[in-house]
Amino acid sequence: MAILSSSLVKLARFSRHYAWLGAILAFGLVLLFSRGFWHGVALDIEKHPQIYTVQPQIIAVEINIGVVERAQQVNYQSRPGDRIIDRNDGRWVQRMGQVIGNVVGPAQNLLYGFDQYSAEPLNTEQADRPDAYSLRSADDPAYETPQTPMAVYRKSKPTDMAQVSQGERQWPLRHRLYLEFAQPLDPGKTYELTFPGSNREPLTLHYDPQHHWSEAVHVSQVGFRPDDPVKLGFLSLWMGNGGGLAYGDGLQFSLIAEGDNPQQRSDRPLFTGRAEHRRGPDDLEDPRDRNYTHTDVYTLDFSSFRRPGRYRLCVAGVGCSWPFEIAPDVWKNVFYTVARGFYHQRSGIAFTAPYTDWERPRPFHPEDTPIYQSRVSLMETNMGIGDRNVFEALQAETSTTPVPEAWGGYFDAGDWDRRIQHLEATRLLLELVEISPKITEINLNIPESRNALPDIIDEALWNLSFYKRLQLPNGGIRGGIESTSHPRRGETSWQNTLPTYVYAPDPWSSYLYAGGAAQAAWILRDRDRPQAEEYQRSAIAAMNYAEAQWPQLQASDPPHQVLDARNLAAVELYRLTGDPAWHQIFLATTVFTDPQKPTMAWGKHHQRDAAFVYARLLHSQVDLKVQSQVYNALIREANRTLALSDQTAFGWTKDDPYQPIGWGASFGSPKAIALVRAHVLSGDARYRNGAIFASQFSLGANPDNLTYTTGLGHNSPQHPLILDARVQGKAPPPGIPLYGPLDIVRFPDYWMFNWLRPVTFPDVSQWPTTEAYFDVFLFPAVTEFTVMQSMGPATYTWGYLAATDP
To answer: What is the pTM of this model?
Structure first.
């Protein structure tokens, strides 16, 4: 919950400063009919069908409206009378009274203009009328006479946003219309959908639910290992103003082999089962007394099927899922993709072949971009755990002292700051090495792959070494780097023109670093002794610096985050050195002297990481009573996580059952750290199985049939809030798990909903949270991410599943 609160503060600021940003719809996602109420060209039906079934008597038609030509950087040709308006968010060019874009880059010789948008909107009043459609068939007697649907339902939502001028936005839209007929369609028969009153050519549907995709069938798009004890999909549909669709128990489903081409496909089911009702639209899914799905959800369980291959999951009369694999390397491949996402977040180096196809110049290196020392610490600002506005503080506490060692680390998210909280992700990477050593065998194709260390350790050290370079001679750790505002419109990371500063040192950052450096030294002790000793010295120096500040801090009643960081650093240093002084600090600061304390409590403490370290120490090293209570707290947390997963319709879970769904507490990455740790401690297979189940929603088994990780699966986010991708007009880099849906009921006043409301149907307040993902670039709460909230937990969970056996 502390992380969520921090994100809310950050993203509220983000919304004010990024109001200028626009968004673009990628080419090729358009279905516009030629005359009447639809106009244009058809989608690739193999990739995304324009007409399909969701029930034998309900046909769905998908229409994507809008073509966007993305703004591009071009040479700026100044004209007499051009006026440059210099603001924090950009240098705006006004020509003949009209803003035409922004001059960008260090040389200020480039112009970043506005998007170009074209579309003929859907006439929704006509499209919602049953008499706008007619269905006939030459081989189904029930439709020999053309039939009009009894009802038409619709849901419409934006798929991105185009900024066509300084203050004007246009919205590419995806409409899904559901046509309910009186008679069911007959498998194997062919139907023609016509549009009376329109010159549009008819659409043809060959009703073959064992071969055709349907949005109602959901399954992980990455698949399963043959020995995964949990293999399942889901059946569900919410039809917008038509509400949820009930299918009833016992509907047959099957696994069908999927060949590389239609000639190789098999019609013979290799597995059959019956759909089982899991949750209804009124069933409560968490302690907040909420239902997040608004429809009946059914499980399609094929856990006993183990044969490797490529399959589609098909439901009788409904249709099929995207193809998926059952293969030994499934989790390894998922881990590889998300672990390499960290490489794509690196600052201070260029991205080049052979390490990536997503090439980029070197950003934020002091040799290219001046970086100066600030007098304000991260701890004091609202980017850390303080109250000072970070941008105002940086502008007030400037200096001209350059910091040549200030390069590296990870970009925080879609923007470019670096902060000590990123060590949470580094801790998870290093912990993964501790609990699943086989993970070290996976080559991540990073620049360090040629050295003797495993790649996952190298990736962790990339981030940790950044803060080590920021360590001062007195041991103090400077908590990161930030500019004086959010990025300027139209600039890429390597074109930044905002003043940029290194934070001053503080004890909170120093404690966090000390814990991370001690953990690294522990892991390196048998792999690279000189580097282990170097990190040990660095960790102790940081701890000593922070401890020197502790008496003054203690007198001021510091935030619990400082106490938690001190507790974690102490247990890591005790594990590393065996020095009882560190043990005493841990015992003095732990909450687990109370047997009832949870691992974390909103606004009070967050000691789950320290607990997991202490739980694994030898009995001879610990206070046995405290260790027993630590173990019990970790198991209670995991059991609570399992219980919530069992309650939710799609098996997703949360770190805290009372957390609202949004930002780092949403569905984009699995919330399974507690389950992994409980499996390590107890060996109980329920916890590892629970981690698999909790991962399904994030990997595509959801109503949008979308993985929330870029470049993963058949259908992944196309418009994440990644500024470098957006400004360049490139597809996003792969391996970035986004936040995912935002609970509209809990956050009704979030600013983006005011923009979405006029172009979304039904009203955004009526959408189920499980479908409240809008693939809109400028939606920080949904399409952004952070290194520690999204990337760390996903890589940790899927890495553990890749490197361990049931």
So the answer is: 0.93
